[in-house]
Amino acid sequence: MREITLRIENMHCDACVRRVKQALEKVDGAQVGDVRVGAARLQVPEHLPDGAVVSAVEKAGYPASVER
């Protein structure tokens, strides 16, 4: 497993945080850690591309990118 941090735009409230957390929990193999306004930390399998996680958040309506 590896840890990644996502920078998530347009998250402004607890409802946004819940929506993003639910989207991340649907990513197979991802273990969601800390989700807060503007960012999320999670553990993902080595083989899971960052794009899969970013895509899940974007489908929930929030632009996202992996923080480097």
Secondary structure blueprint with pairings:
Elements (H helix, E strand, L loop, with lengths): L1 E7 L5 H12 L5 E6 L2 E6 L5 H10 L4 E3 L2
Antiparallel strand pairs: 1-3, 1-4, 2-3
Q: Could you walk me through the main structural features you see in this protein, from its secondary elements to its overall organization?
A:
The protein has a single domain, classed as Alpha-Beta Plaits (2-Layer Sandwich). It is built from two helices and four strands, in the order βαββαβ. It has a four-stranded antiparallel beta sheet, covered by helices on one side. It has about 70 residues and is α+β, with helices and mostly antiparallel strands. The chain is globular, with a radius of gyration of 10 Å.
Q: What is the 3D form?
A: globular
Question: Would you state the CATH class?
Answer: Alpha Beta
Number of strands: 4
* Residues in β-strands, percent: 25-35%
Give the proportion of residues in helices: 25-40%
Mean pLDDT: 95
- What CATH architecture do you see? 2-Layer Sandwich
Structural class category: alpha+beta
Query: How many individual domains?
Result: 1
Largest sheet: 4 strands, antiparallel
Our Rg estimate from Cα atoms comes to 10 Å
Give the spatial strand order of the biggest sheet: 2-3-1-4
Distance between the amino and carboxyl termini: 17 Å
Question: Which sequence of SSEs, written as H and E, runs from N to C?
Answer: EHEEHE
- List low-confidence stretches: none
